[in-house]
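Researcher: We plan to redesign the surface later, but first we want a full-length starting point. C-alpha coordinates attached.
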Protein backbone atom coordinates (compact mmCIF):
# COMPACT_ATOMS: atom_id res chain seq x y z
CA UNK A 1 0.00 0.00 0.00
CA UNK A 2 2.77 2.39 0.92
CA UNK A 3 4.47 1.63 -2.40
CA UNK A 4 1.30 2.63 -4.29
CA UNK A 5 0.99 5.81 -2.25
CA UNK A 6 4.64 6.60 -2.91
CA UNK A 7 4.12 6.01 -6.64
CA UNK A 8 1.11 8.33 -6.67
CA UNK A 9 3.09 11.02 -4.88
CA UNK A 10 5.94 10.68 -7.40
CA UNK A 11 3.45 10.83 -10.28
CA UNK A 12 1.94 14.01 -8.85
CA UNK A 13 5.40 15.53 -8.37
CA UNK A 14 6.37 14.52 -11.92
CA UNK A 15 3.25 16.19 -13.36
CA UNK A 16 3.81 19.33 -11.29
CA UNK A 17 7.42 19.58 -12.48
CA UNK A 18 6.37 19.12 -16.12
CA UNK A 19 3.86 21.96 -15.77
CA UNK A 20 6.46 24.15 -14.10
CA UNK A 21 8.95 23.39 -16.87
CA UNK A 22 6.34 24.32 -19.48
CA UNK A 23 5.71 27.62 -17.71
CA UNK A 24 9.44 28.41 -17.64
CA UNK A 25 9.73 27.52 -21.33
CA UNK A 26 6.85 29.87 -22.20
CA UNK A 27 8.50 32.67 -20.23
CA UNK A 28 11.77 31.91 -21.99
CA UNK A 29 10.09 32.25 -25.40
CA UNK A 30 8.55 35.59 -24.41
CA UNK A 31 11.82 36.99 -23.07
CA UNK A 32 13.72 35.73 -26.13
CA UNK A 33 11.24 37.51 -28.44
CA UNK A 34 11.62 40.68 -26.38
CA UNK A 35 15.42 40.36 -26.52
CA UNK A 36 15.28 40.06 -30.32
CA UNK A 37 13.15 43.22 -30.42
CA UNK A 38 15.66 45.06 -28.22
CA UNK A 39 18.55 43.96 -30.44
CA UNK A 40 16.68 45.33 -33.48
CA UNK A 41 16.04 48.56 -31.58
CA UNK A 42 19.74 48.88 -30.76
CA UNK A 43 20.61 48.37 -34.44
CA UNK A 44 18.10 51.06 -35.42
CA UNK A 45 19.64 53.48 -32.92
CA UNK A 46 23.12 52.70 -34.26
CA UNK A 47 21.92 53.37 -37.81
CA UNK A 48 20.46 56.74 -36.78
CA UNK A 49 24.02 58.06 -36.29
CA UNK A 50 24.31 58.11 -40.09
CA UNK A 51 20.98 59.85 -40.74
CA UNK A 52 20.71 63.55 -41.55
CA UNK A 53 17.86 65.87 -40.59
CA UNK A 54 14.99 65.53 -43.10
CA UNK A 55 16.32 62.30 -44.62
CA UNK A 56 13.81 59.56 -45.48
CA UNK A 57 14.40 56.18 -43.86
CA UNK A 58 12.60 52.87 -43.43
CA UNK A 59 11.55 52.63 -39.82
CA UNK A 60 10.90 49.14 -38.39
CA UNK A 61 7.68 49.12 -36.38
CA UNK A 62 7.52 45.42 -35.51
CA UNK A 63 7.35 42.08 -37.18
CA UNK A 64 8.16 42.52 -40.84
CA UNK A 65 6.56 45.98 -41.07
CA UNK A 66 8.50 49.14 -41.92
CA UNK A 67 7.33 52.70 -42.45
CA UNK A 68 8.85 55.41 -44.59
CA UNK A 69 9.67 58.28 -42.30
CA UNK A 70 11.24 61.70 -42.66
CA UNK A 71 13.56 62.18 -39.75
CA UNK A 72 13.38 65.36 -37.73
CA UNK A 73 16.19 65.84 -35.20
CA UNK A 74 17.90 62.45 -35.68
CA UNK A 75 20.17 63.07 -32.69
CA UNK A 76 17.33 62.46 -30.22
CA UNK A 77 14.89 59.62 -29.72
CA UNK A 78 11.83 59.21 -27.54
CA UNK A 79 11.97 56.25 -25.16
CA UNK A 80 8.88 54.73 -23.59
CA UNK A 81 9.98 53.84 -20.08
CA UNK A 82 6.50 52.87 -18.88
CA UNK A 83 2.94 52.84 -20.17
CA UNK A 84 2.48 56.58 -19.76
CA UNK A 85 6.02 58.00 -19.57
CA UNK A 86 8.13 58.90 -22.59
CA UNK A 87 11.51 60.58 -22.23
CA UNK A 88 13.80 62.16 -24.79
CA UNK A 89 17.42 61.00 -24.90
CA UNK A 90 20.32 61.43 -27.25
CA UNK A 91 21.41 58.43 -29.30
CA UNK A 92 24.29 57.40 -27.06
CA UNK A 93 22.22 57.54 -23.86
CA UNK A 94 19.40 55.68 -25.61
CA UNK A 95 21.79 52.96 -26.70
CA UNK A 96 23.11 52.66 -23.12
CA UNK A 97 19.53 52.29 -21.87
CA UNK A 98 18.79 49.57 -24.44
CA UNK A 99 22.08 47.81 -23.64
CA UNK A 100 21.06 47.59 -19.97
CA UNK A 101 17.72 46.08 -20.96
CA UNK A 102 19.48 43.59 -23.25
CA UNK A 103 21.77 42.57 -20.38
CA UNK A 104 18.79 42.15 -18.04
CA UNK A 105 17.05 39.97 -20.62
CA UNK A 106 20.16 37.83 -21.07
CA UNK A 107 20.41 37.40 -17.29
CA UNK A 108 16.75 36.33 -17.18
CA UNK A 109 17.32 33.88 -20.02
CA UNK A 110 20.31 32.39 -18.21
CA UNK A 111 18.28 32.07 -14.99
CA UNK A 112 15.35 30.41 -16.78
CA UNK A 113 17.64 27.98 -18.59
CA UNK A 114 19.22 27.03 -15.24
CA UNK A 115 15.77 26.45 -13.73
CA UNK A 116 14.70 24.36 -16.72
CA UNK A 117 17.88 22.28 -16.42
CA UNK A 118 17.23 21.68 -12.69
CA UNK A 119 13.65 20.66 -13.37
CA UNK A 120 14.77 18.36 -16.18
CA UNK A 121 17.26 16.68 -13.82
CA UNK A 122 14.46 16.17 -11.27
CA UNK A 123 12.18 14.74 -13.96
CA UNK A 124 14.88 12.31 -15.04
CA UNK A 125 15.43 11.28 -11.42
CA UNK A 126 11.74 10.58 -10.92
CA UNK A 127 11.61 8.65 -14.21
CA UNK A 128 14.52 6.54 -13.05
CA UNK A 129 12.77 5.78 -9.75
CA UNK A 130 9.67 4.72 -11.68
CA UNK A 131 11.72 2.48 -13.98
CA UNK A 132 13.49 0.87 -11.02
CA UNK A 133 10.19 0.30 -9.25
CA UNK A 134 8.68 -1.21 -12.37
CA UNK A 135 11.68 -3.51 -12.85
CA UNK A 136 11.54 -4.70 -9.24
CA UNK A 137 7.80 -5.32 -9.47
CA UNK A 138 8.28 -7.34 -12.68
CA UNK A 139 10.98 -9.44 -11.00
CA UNK A 140 8.66 -10.24 -8.10
CA UNK A 141 5.90 -11.31 -10.50
CA UNK A 142 8.05 -13.75 -12.49
CA UNK A 143 7.45 -17.39 -11.54
CA UNK A 144 10.45 -19.21 -10.08
CA UNK A 145 12.36 -21.16 -12.67
CA UNK A 146 13.09 -24.83 -12.01
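Model: Full-length starting sequence:
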Amino acid sequence: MENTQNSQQLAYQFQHLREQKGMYEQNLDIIQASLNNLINTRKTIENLHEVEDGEEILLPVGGMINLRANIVNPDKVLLSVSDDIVIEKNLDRSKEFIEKLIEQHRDQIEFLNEQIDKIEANLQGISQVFRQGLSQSQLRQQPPQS
